[in-house]
């Protein structure tokens, strides 16, 4: 076998072993399924067109095609819609702490929303991540209450 043939053969093998996008994404999907993180995409009408790992008692099939107003209380939906609409109209991403109520329980999220653009730069919708930080918010509230009690003593 010539030297050229010997050097090409390992390159061919390496090409065949290169991971595909699916094999690269799979470990991340597994990690996200165990993490308190929801990823989503919404169109210009703010209807969910894709959602991964929904929280707060939602199922992916329940949310698709719907807006926050169809899924949450009017007050919670208005707060989320204001943030997302601002991103749609300004084309600038946003990050805010938001609190929503689900089945009587307050849930705190670190919400990040970014515009989704087409090749010409027009905003087509929004993409976002919502991280459940309820435990952190509760601990922070308990600490504030403890400090208030200490001042009173």
Question: What do these coordinates show?
Answer:
The protein has 153 residues and is of the alpha+beta class. Helices cover 48% and strands 29% of the residues. The protein contains six helices and five strands.
Q: Helix and strand layout, with pairings?
A:
Blueprint: H1 3-17, H2 21-34, E1 37-43, E2 48-52, H3 60-63, H4 68-71, H5 74-90, E3 94-102, E4 105-117, E5 123-132, H6 134-152
Strand content range: 25-35%
Supply the number of helical segments: 6
Order of helices and strands: HHEEHHHEEEH
Main pleated-sheet profile: 5 strands, antiparallel
Shape designation: globular
Helicity range: 40-55%
Please state how the strands of the largest beta sheet are arranged side by side. 2-1-5-4-3
Question: What's the total number of strands?
Answer: 5
Find the structural class using helix and strand composition.
alpha+beta
Low-confidence stretches: none
Mean pLDDT comes to 85
Task: State the end-to-end CA separation.
Answer: 88 Å
Rg for CA atoms: 22 Å
Oligomer class: single chain
